[in-house]
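Table S7 (text form). Paired inputs.
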Amino acid sequence: MNIVKEKAQQVMKKAIELAPDKWMPGGRPDPLGDSRDGYIGMPVSRIDGPHKVAGQARFAAEFALDGMLYAALVYSTVPKGRIATIDTAAVAAAPGVALVMTHENAPKMAPMPLFMSAQKAAAGEKAAVMQGDRVGYNGQPVALVLAATQEQADHACTLVRVKYETEPAVTSLEAAKARGSEPGAFMGEPLKKEVGDAEDRLARAAHKVDAVYRTPRHSHNAIELHSVTVAWEGDTLRLHDATQAVAHTAWSLAQVFGLKEEQVRVSSPFVGGGFGGKTLWRHQVLAAAASRLAGRPVRLMLSRAGVYRVVGGRAPTEQRVAIGASADGKFEAIVHTGTTAMSPNNEFPEPFILATQCMYGAESFKLDVEAVRMDMLANTFMRAPGEAVGTFALECAVDELAERLDIDPVELRIRNEPEKDPLEGKRFSSRHLVAAWRMGAERFGWDARQARPGMRQEGEWLVGLGCAAATYPYHRMPGGAARITLRRDGSAHVAFAAHEMGMGTSTTHAMVAAERLGLALEQVTVAYGDSTLPGMILAGGSQQTASVGHSVIAAQRALVAKLLELAPKESALHGLAPDDVAARNGGLCKRDEPQRFESYAALLERAGQEELSAEGEAPPPLEYMHWSMHSYGAIFCEARVNVVTGETRVTRLLGAYDCGRVVNPKTATSQFRGGMIMGMGMALMEETGFDERNGRIMNPSLAEYHVPVHLDVPEIEVIWTDIPDPHAPMGARGIGEIGITGTSAAVVNAIYNACGRRVRDLPVTLDKLVD
């Protein structure tokens, strides 16, 4: 970013921050935030649940098309170089094989547009797919085979013979650091922030902690494998894709194949988990190219190992956290700096300082993320990118400082609660983290904790309690839109290009739409997961609910305006403006005169219309530039360490959250628990093995890459403040990613309290606890 553009953005941000509240989206509280007698806040069962249980919910790899071929990939075995020869002669004679595609016969395609390089760019890497003989990382697809069955395609791949001319590659973090680093940036913002002279204040502080924390690579392991079913209908490309960005994927593929955006249609009715990894990667491009060459539909479902080779994950980090405090525990300096890795094909440094920017008040800050380049698969977004690994380092450091100060860890965090955004000075839209700490500590029984490690033993097990703070920002990306169609029978159909990845999208937004329209839940149907629908709402950043909520507000206002235009002189609504009316009981009424009412059915019947549609676009997301908007949490953990074997067990987890209004407690509880389980896995077992000799991922399967299973997971309790954020749609902030933040630190802190062994290098494997 050039200096002129950066200065202009800074001026714009300051102008938005200083503008009157009423000029901002969310300047007036959403009435749904305080509604206590409608659907908002009710524990509603998922309306798509019966479809999934009955096997009627079709995922991307379950669309059977006439004449369809099955695809499999061949992956490179070197980290850098070129393909000298590729022999596919034996493949052509293999049973069922219809096509072998390599760089020698692949159609000409433009590079994939890297995410954030344009408004709808969706690719995790800026790569030209199979357009030459260059190899950029170990695992890069170098050939694709199409066959009549999946088994035949998989077998034929083993017959491809590739010889490489290798070149020196950078395949270790240490080697990459030796070559030098570059400043990190995230979402267009530099990852370097300073307030005062933190190093000087740290040196003069009465009490301090200064340590390095490390987190390993992590790989995406959604239950549903990445998959796509592709067909060309003339010059139109049709995809059923496992994606969390239908509109973005459609636009991006249009750029790759030189098409108009409307020539690509992407549908994604159900996605079996995304977590940041299901955007555009090489497999969708390869499937579409192969389908075009073969003239037949193609299904490409990556194997579990294939996901590890094609889809990026979380990059390793080395983080220094130093905190200086006065004798009473008030923070005087916070230093959070370090290094992470990227590939030559992407621009995504793991932004581990994000949580530190807003968590605690201090007199000085030094925050900095430096990035180095490695010859590896491009890393990408993974649930709570930055916050998940950043809170591990920050919250462990706070725990270490609490011990040195001899102050209870919960009390130390409360003492350093900021009154306003610590770095930017903005007002918080709503922050009730102290209330979450108080209610969580009481429910968990925190007062039973022994301050000295190793003081509680039950048989062979040492028992400890730990805690950590959690945070994740409120997001709402631009481009949200929705369409509402009202029918004479009193029902409504709401459509938007959002996604169902397991979080209950259709249920939550049916609830929101029903309450906004004054209808019963069963009167509302919802369409989503198709690039032809309005808007370009991406399921990421815990922002889909806010984006859809604002879009439905806009569409409803447009619909009400149209309905009032239909009201003749004899109508009770004649002459009223949209701000004068409220929706309830299947119609509209004057806000302060509810007896002035007319049903939707009556309005449409009087106008002789069977249905009426309106579209609305959400306003630009200026609210989080005006206020400091975040979700918060207080995580509590009980962990046990076996004195004989060093084995660890998490036996209790509790999360107390301040996320504004909780729209659907039933689906929200599931989201919180799922995130906390991922955080527990991050603490105890998740690690992508990376062979630094050749850049190859060594454990590309769930047999070797360990994640928590049922026997690992204790009963998890989730509670929340349920205090609406007056500046967010429905009063609700995001919950999809905050569950993972802070949890790994709470687990590590509990392990330390149990046995007195401090681990700063995740995961906490047995070898780190025994001598």
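Next pair, protein 2 of 2.
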Amino acid sequence: MSHDPFPLSTSPHPLGAPLVRREGREKVTGGARYAAEHTPPDCAYAWPVPATVARGRITDIDTGAALALPGVHEVLTYKNAPRLEPSDDPTLAVLQDDRVPHRGWYVALVVADSLETARDAAEAVRCTYETAAHDVRLTADHPGLYTPETANGGHPGLRERGDFAGAFAAAPVTVDATYHLASLHNHPMEPHAATARWTDGHLTVHDSSQGSTKVRDDLATLFGLDKGEITVISEHVGGGFGSKGTPRPQVVLAVMAARHTARPVKLSLPRRHMPATVGHRAPTIQRVRIGASTDGAITALAHEVATHTSTVREFVEQAAVPARVMYTSPNSRTEHRVVPLDVPTPSWMRAPGEAPGMYALESALDELAVLLDIDPVELRVRNEPETEPDSDRAFSSRHLVNCLREGAERFGWLPRDRRPAVRREGDLLVGTGVASATYPVLISGSDAEAHAAAGGDHLVRVNATDIGTGARTVLAQIAAAALGTSEDRVRIEIGSSDLPTAPLAGGSAGSGSWGWAVHKACTALAERLREHHGPLPAEGVTVRADTRQEASAKGPYARHSFGAHFAEVQVDTTTGEIRVRRMLGVFAAGRILNSRTARSQFIGGMTMGLGMALMEGSALDPAFGDFAATDLASYHVPACADVPLIEAHWLDEDDPHLNPMGSKGIGEIGTVGSAAAIGNAVWHATGVRLRDLPLTPDKLLPHLAHLPRPTD
């Protein structure tokens, strides 16, 4: 691999240029069509019926009143729904038996001529249950907790190095703190939707998904079809944040209904159903213990996480994994424990594991800095490891200290009075906070096809998915740079399982994975064209490439992105309201492929972290077993007024050990650490250390009553 395969002079629009995203005009003019906006002739509409008990089984379903409504075609239940083949995802085994594993599990599906009729008929379905005792409450001492062999991503459930217990007991300065994070929901603006139709034995599905190849493969398994008999299209997707990373029940139900009724069927999940149906970030109880010398060197570090999963499928939020990466820790213990409860199955949410785990770790680092009376930036610098602590592998690149230093300068971090609750503006207390961020570099093998037309234009085909990140634009830049042409001479086709196979958009791995295959195909095409003499044939020249071998190779380096977050907050001592005045992030994420779309991703992630810190959270009702916040009226997310000033910057990081573009993923790193920076700023403003997110006024206000009031 050459050190810099894309010198800036290779094309009129080099990598990193702030090109406007290609589909922008389509989106703002309504030309971009989403899954629920495809309406084939004679299309029917479906509406699902969720279970109203937390655990039990169905004893009777009365569908008579629903079927009697004009325009209703069918009500599918476990008694008459098409049978599905076993798959590796039991959350997709809908309408197959009488079991109810949690409230909100789908027990019926109405199919009608109109959306309104389907909704009314769903209300008319009467279901009788035999209930059983349920448990939805996660506690640190729950008797059902166990240590899984692996957490999400294949990470070991337990890792130990050295003698943590002995080192912690001997440390002159220690922190022992427990942090609680509530369940979080993805809530993309586009609800999960699918439109399915069968034509001469071929199934075509428009699905709101982060990866149509995976949807196609799972549908083939479930319905006993050959992959060639299915086309899944996810051309435009209105957000996902992980919840659309794997198939969800809507696509299975739509295909079921289309097969059963022999007509196209459209299903868009009601937003109130989504928290129980499409996954959520599981709540965590995280205990962090740090032992350090008086000069701030960490000698012992433990991060122990308790979380829940469902009785349907095991999913373990890998929140302790960042502690294996971040700081010098010769004696370490990191453990995940999980308990199966009668809850919906948790799943991926932006920066799974790293987002909640780094909140706890970076908050504990701040608590240690307070005990030692050391500047929080300086404490992190003093504990910068030479190699990855958990593996002892060298980092391919690690510029966390540079991010902290540059961020501190840009933010105006110093001079800073480290004492809390001393900066007052009338009834407002003001404080600043900092936190680090990390996210792994993930790459998967991909196929791509590059075509040169006789007229000089190019076509690149790859089954990437653009979930609002600008993937089309970045892939065109990669292709143009490899071909040595202008990006406006490159057309991109993505978003269909009929295209060359590619991994899903998730884990900050999309552009790196797809781009590598695009680069390889385009490089080979450019070489073919250089060797060709005379005009191209009328049909042009096509080259196909895959990167499975390269992506699966085990390299000697630990590969991660890093960043530093800074936040300034104000706290109203009368109301307890916390407002973020400004946020700043500085990131080291390899080569930035498009500065415009990258800044958008960083700022979006930071805003998501703000929501996590101050407003987002949903508790499970212990009596009824359902989430209390099920819509955007009750589940609050940040609005523009909540982010008055937010800045994202990055280092020009040169890392030759990643992929031909030298890029790292950027989708998640903006979220990781931002909530901790805000929480640390709240402590600095008030002297109150809250360890239970979100930091809402009701939690803070009782602590403010004891603070001295401003004098007239």
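The radius of gyration is 26 Å.
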